[in-house]
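ok here's the first one, seq then struct tokens
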Amino acid sequence: MARLVYTAICSLDGYTVDADGKFDWATPDEEVHAFVNDLERPLGTQLLGRRMYETLAVWQTIGGPEHHAIENDYAEIWRAAEKVVYSTTLESVSTPRTRLERDFDPAAVRQLVAGAERDVGIGGPGLAAHAFRAGLVDEVHHLVHPVVVGGGTRALPDGVRLDLELVSERRFAGGVVHLHHSRRS
């Protein structure tokens, strides 16, 4: 059975963007980017909120000899995945293999994951908060950057309790730490 996997790049104090909405401090180096590619590669479907979709949609057109091999690899991973975008404000989606949903329906997401042949990713802390509150998230990957930003958008929602087990951790040369947790049975 497939799992619902949440991956977040965040600051040491747990924010995906700072108080100004910036995440330039989170730009991955080659080592981290290649690792993220390997995390994303097994996912068959990506569930995305509007902001995350708008940020990532650029990968539909990135590619070619002027780009680094790691970027070309991620672009291929992005284009191969099915994408479901949850938004009440987006009028349409601009990328292939993408459908638009107006409401996050936990029962429908549970059914999608249960019927999936490959794991399903969920991206964007706002959308992920709905999945956490509904008890749908099976695995959490955090790529923690060595920076404290003091505020912004939290990677994890308030008011949710989820007992996790540390599966693995990895430290990268640039100071980023990957933490992989799985929901306790």
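and now the second one, same deal
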Amino acid sequence: MNIPVDLKYTKDHEWIRLENDHAVVGVTDFAQGELGDIVFIEVETVGETLEEGETFGSIEAVKTVSDLFMPVSAEVLEYNEALNANPELINKDPYGEGWIVKVKVDNPDSLNHLLNAEDYKDLIGA
């Protein structure tokens, strides 16, 4: 299982990576594996500022539909439009082409309370 050390993680299995003036958010390799074949992503929060823990979208797999939660307070800047035609990108490359949203983080220090790779491994029993 792939758990990159340069990311921060939530207990709800989202990851976040700071990139200059914005951050990228997606779901973990563990999450996509548990969900199975992903068939649809819905994000209707572009342009909205959400608090940590608020739902920014949903992810639908063959087995289930799950909410996506904002790891930190941030404004949703962009949705990965490639997921409309190819939602399986999340299954194939959850930390790369399968990113879900780009956000503007209110306070970059807020990432400090999220899980690091080791803590996330402990959470999922890896």
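notes on #2: The chain has one domain: 8-106. DSSP finds four helices and nine strands in the chain.
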